[in-house]
Every structure is written in C-alpha cells, then in structure tokens.
Design brief:
It comes from Rhodopirellula halodulae. This protein is mainly alpha-helical. The protein folds into two domains: about 1-50, no CATH class; about 60-190, Orthogonal Bundle (Cytochrome Bc1 Complex, Chain D, domain 2). It contains eight helices and four strands.
C-alpha cells in the first residue's frame, strides 16, 4: 500500500491520454549532452567518411579488408593456373568454391543472375554452352571476354587466382538446371573430367 502511495505522490507531467498519466522522469543531463554532442559530431563524420575521398567510406574499408583477407588466403595456395586439373580440383573444394562464389556475386550477377540462371548473359546452370568446349575455356572466357565484348574481359580486373576460383564455381553450377527465362544457348559438350584421386598430388600450376 505504501508503494502505491509513493506512485501517487510521484511527480507527473501535465498531460494525460485516455486517463493514462506519465511520470515526470527526465533523461539524465549527461545523456542529453551526449546526444547534443553526436549532432555536432555528425557533420565532421559525414565529411570524412562520405565526402567521396578514396579509401574512407565503409564500402572502401570493407573492400580493403576483403582484399587483404583474400591475399592471406591466396598465400595458402600460391599462384593458380587455369589448367584442367586445377579447375577440376578446385570445383570440388567447398571452401574455395565459396570464394569463387563471392567473386561471382560481386561481379557477374547483373548479367548471369544471382544463381547463374541467366539474365542478359546465358544460363550457366544447364548443359548448353556457347563459348565453352572444355572446362579450361571457362577461364579463357573470363580472362578474354566473348561475344564481341558482350562478355567483358576480366583479366585486368581480377587476380589470376580469382579467375581460377570463379571459373571453378561456374563449372560447379553445371547440371543444376535452374529455371530461366532464357532458352538453351549453344550446344551440349562432354561432361567435366573427374577429379584426381585424393592420394595424388593436385597440380596448381
């Protein structure tokens, strides 16, 4: 009962809504001044991080961190060459396929779709290929482009290892047959070669 009396005697604001009253408990002064300080700080934050200066935006710093992490990962595998054994081997390594997938999603989805189902570019998940006769041709198309520039060359924008890993990822999409608005393009080719046995050394160059 005494607690209820204390609530009744507590200071309240001078407004009520449908009989509901509000206790007059103002925010602490330090909290208010902290809020005011963030308002004054925000223009300087905006000018530093969002003024267009290279290397300062959240996207730029993320890209720098991602590139550094990728370089550390590449130190584990050395310099890959887009040969048949290497491509076949890496398309069966889930951790590295995910790296190739991240390269694909960062650069290729506007033409080939988020899952490789095809948009402007052809469907990469069926059994039909326009510019590919062997698995090595995937890396050649990535490096040099195709279709008179419809598929741009990426050799000057991607690390050679990224070319190999994204090519391995694209090769891994074959046979998923994701529904697409684009019909079959090109012709059928032989299946990809089988990976080398585990006890044999996987060539990387």
């Amino acid at each position: 009962m005494s607690q209820l009396t204390d609530y009744d005697n507590a200071p309240k604001t001078d407004h009520a809504y449908d009989g509901i009253e509000e206790f007059d408990n103002p925010l602490p002064g330090w909290w208010k001044w902290l809020f005011v300080a963030t308002i004054f700080f925000s223009p300087f934050y905006y000018l530093y991080y969002h003024s267009g200066a290279s290397g300062r935006s959240v996207e730029d710093t993320y890209g720098i961190a991602l590139a550094e992490n990728t370089r550390l990962q590449f130190a584990e595998i050395g310099d890959l060459k887009p040969t048949e054994p290497t491509l076949v081997a890496y398309m069966h390594k889930p951790n590295w396929v995910r790296v190739g997938q991240s390269v694909f999603k960062a650069n290729c989805i506007s033409c080939h779709g988020r899952e490789g189902e095809g948009q402007v570019g052809p469907n990469l998940t069926d059994e039909y290929f326009k510019n590919v006769k062997s698995i090595e041709d995937i890396a050649k198309v990535v490096n040099n482009g195709a279709g008179g520039g419809a598929m741009p060359k990426w050799s000057d924008r991607l690390h050679p290892n990224e070319v190999v890993l994204v090519s391995a990822y694209v090769a891994s999409l074959r046979g998923q047959n994701i529904e697409s608005s684009r019909g079959p393009e090109g012709g059928k080719i032989p299946p990809w070669p089988e990976p080398i046995e585990e006890d044999e050394e996987t060539p990387e160059e």
